[in-house]
Amino acid sequence: MEKSINLVPPLKWVGGKRKIIEIIISAANEIETPFTYYEPFFGGGAIFFSLYSRGLLKNAYLNDVVPQVVNFYNVLSEQNARNILKKEAKKFERKFNNLNKDVTKRKNEYIKFREDFNDNWESFNSKLNFESRAKLGAQFLALNKIGFNGMFRVNSKGRFNIPMGSPVKKRLFDEDNLDEVGDALSKVSFTCDDYSNVKPFKGNVNKNNLIFLDPPYIPNSQTAYFTDYSVEGFNKDSHIKLSNDFSKLIENNNNNVIFTNNFNKISLDLFVDKNKKNKRLNAYKFNITKTISAKNSGRGNTEELLISTFPIQHERLEKI
Ligand SMILES: C[S@@+](CC[C@H](N)C(=O)[O-])C[C@H]1O[C@@H](n2cnc3c(N)ncnc32)[C@H](O)[C@@H]1O
User: Fold this and answer.
1) Residue 219 CA, ligand 1 centroid: distance in Å
2) Rounded to whole angstroms, how far apart are CA atoms 60 and 284?
């Protein structure tokens, strides 16, 4: 894949990995380039966009379980659909920026807008024409930027239910960046499935690879549990299953794997201690500032865990 400009993730995403890009770049320097990249928990894709921008990827297999997100990226990857998305998103940008002085009206409009998106989404299927998919993509982008903190959460019926964010002037996208992002996405495989049904967990993995695993967080406390990306959620049992799948993945000596999560007792038990016998395992601790929940806007310095199947040199990493 050719080297591009410096791509910026088009969405704001909870658990986004912008703050550890430099660490993953150091890791990528340990691997023969270009490599095949696998990211089954894609979200905002901060790491993919950064590796792609540096021309390090031969090809990429990306996946996320949230269909609204995957539709957005698919729309970006098709030029005709992307052009419609940009036009629609500009309209939404103007509409909400013009309402900034009347917060009550803005809030009412936001709720109407969100419900319209949810109603349209209920009739979504992949055979929908590209204009309708593009409009849904534009509504999704607007909700991501105008909703609270870029959070994505659905209720038991699969309806997006994040409240409005602060009424300040917003720019929904940068046109050149969106075009470059769309061009990058048109060259990769993007699926929408449970991680266990896609590469690298199912099917053959190319030899020279980097597999980046950034699943939903294992909470440090029950109140911080953020599992609502999808109707199914990602609970403790899901993490136990993932830890078994992870153990199998790292047994294959050809796989270059990086896993990140919160640093706590459960993550250490499930992902580090369980794989103690595997000589390829390297475990590190590092600090990060992040936002976790809508209720208390919990922002703070927390410790994270990074596991890799090869040693990584970086000043922020403390070997454990
Ligand atoms: C911590 S976020 C990844 C953030 C990403 N690395 C970034 O920089 O934005 C975890 C992602 O896993 C997705 N996810 C949750 N359950 C999943 C599942 N069962 N299979 C695949 N993806 C899942 C969520 O939708 C979310 O986007």
Assistant:
1) 15
2) 26
What tens digit of pLDDT does each residue of 261-271 get?
A: 999 999 999 99
From the CA of 17, give the closest atom in ligand 1.
8
- Residue 106 is predicted with a pLDDT of 97
Predicted TM-score (pTM) of the model is 0.94
* Residue 255 DSSP SS3: coil
Ligand 1, pocket-test mutation among 50, 62, 229, 239, most atoms within 8 A of CB: 229
Residue pLDDT, tens place only, 232-243: 678 889 999 999
The per-residue DSSP string of 128-169 comes to S-HHHHHHHHHHHHHHHHHBGGG---B-TTS-B-PPB-----
Tokens of 20: 């550890």
Measured between alpha carbons, how far is 39 from 167 in angstroms, rounded to an integer? Answer: 34
DSSP character at residue 61: E
Number of residues that this document lists for the chain: 320
Of 3-7, 66-70, 179-183, 311-315, the poorest mean pLDDT is in 3-7
Confidence at residue 5, expressed as pLDDT on a 0 to 100 scale: 79
Q: Which domains does the chain have, with CATH numbers?
A: 18-65+193-319 (3.40.50.150), 79-178 (1.10.1020)
